[in-house]
Amino acid sequence: MFGRSFPFFIASRYLKPSRRNRFLSFITAIAIVGVTLGTCALLISLSILRGYDETLRTTIIDFMGHIEISGYYANDSLVGGESISNGLRARIPEISAISPFVRREAIIRSSKGLEGVLLKGMESTEDISAIREKVIAGEFLSQKVSAEEGALSPLVIGKRLADRLFVGLGDTVVLFIATGVPDLNTPPLIEQFVVTGIYRSGMAQYDDIYVFTTIQAARSLLQYSPDIVSGFDVMLSDPAKIGEVVQQIRHDAGGNYWAESVFELFSSIFAWIDLQRMLIPIVMAIIAVVATFNVISILLMTVLEKTESIGTLATIGASPRTIMKIFVSKGVLVTSIGVFSGAALTLIFSILQLRYGLIGLEADIYIFESVPIAIDPLHYIVVILGTILLAVLATLIPAAIAGRLRPVMTLRFQ
Question: Residue 177 carries which DSSP code?
């Protein structure tokens, strides 16, 4: 007697505002808003966590590659940098690029400020980092300046550091490097540099501390010979083999140097992200329970409100199964409207955050200057399908109650 679309038609009619019972319409709206907010909360949490993970990994790898090779102790230097580099390339085919560097703690001084920094001298022709892509003013290690006779060595500094020192392009700064306990017999190494570039990575740990110059300038300041380096940045062709390659380098080092992956160097940060990820199932469960109770509550109220209508449907031939389908359809409709609305709002927010950085962060505490976010289609698919499936299961109880009502009793219901 009734077509397949009949339950859906009746359920959609129940969603429309009713002059007769505005309270039921209000409760339905509240249920939809509840599901919408729950979906937004879950998707935004997943997107931010994924954004933190991806942005952190990308930024760190952009600056130092997958593996860092250095001496066993701080400020240990490696003699024969070219032979070490060639040997690593020959023994480990997974290495796609390797870049030597000279690194040392220093103090940078301008006419208006003084800060502690980490000086890193890099070989521009072998540089594997993506720092030059982060430069927002000037050039990355300009060879034009260093090529001029008597010119100061170039220096690239972070935007946050430049603001604190009140320096810009073309300004001169002085670097001090201690060679021991400073006294009259062991004065610090001192050299002037000219600021030729300003970068911004968005990660305070780099922008506040790292300053870059050519490896030749760093060697000159530290009085190193041309074959001495502090270490190497290593990039692999297959990031999945980082752990395996690190173990091989350590085994082959023979006590001459040490290798660490980016995940070991920044283990505390990645452990923090893993801890946040562990809480996601708890958050999902809480939001799912709230959404389920919202749907069950609205359907139970609908059963009470529409008892006479249920009796009328049963009288004209609607079977208990058909009546159950009507309430299941309403539950699915309420959930679907809420879920898709929440997903749409989350997607709009994510795009705006990616483009404009609407929500900023205190970089000294949260690492980044704005909330990092990632749009993962899998998150949306899992949340949408999972929530709708949960709604179907949640509607079975009130739908079964509606299907078991006897026509005579429902028609007498006041």
Answer: E
**pLDDT exceeds 60 at position 308:** no
Dmax (CA) for the chain in angstroms is 107
Q: Is the pLDDT of residue 151 over 70?
A: yes
Q: Rg of the chain's alpha carbons, rounded to an integer?
A: 32
Instruction: Tell me phi and psi for residue 108, to 5 degrees.
Output: -105, 135
201 belongs to a structural domain: yes
Residue 251: phi, psi to the nearest 5?
-65, -40
What pLDDT shows up at residue 323? 65
Per DSSP, the three-state class of 101 is strand
Same domain, 273 and 252: no
- Those residues whose C-beta lies under 8 Å from the C-beta of residue 132, and which sit 6 or more positions away, are 140, 141
Rounded Cα distance between 220 and 222, Å, is 6
Percentage, residues of the chain above pLDDT 90:
22
Cβ atoms within 10 A of the Cβ of 409, count?
10
Domain that holds residue 149: 72-256
Q: What is the mean pLDDT of residues 321-326?
A: 69
Pair (118, 180) in one structural domain: yes
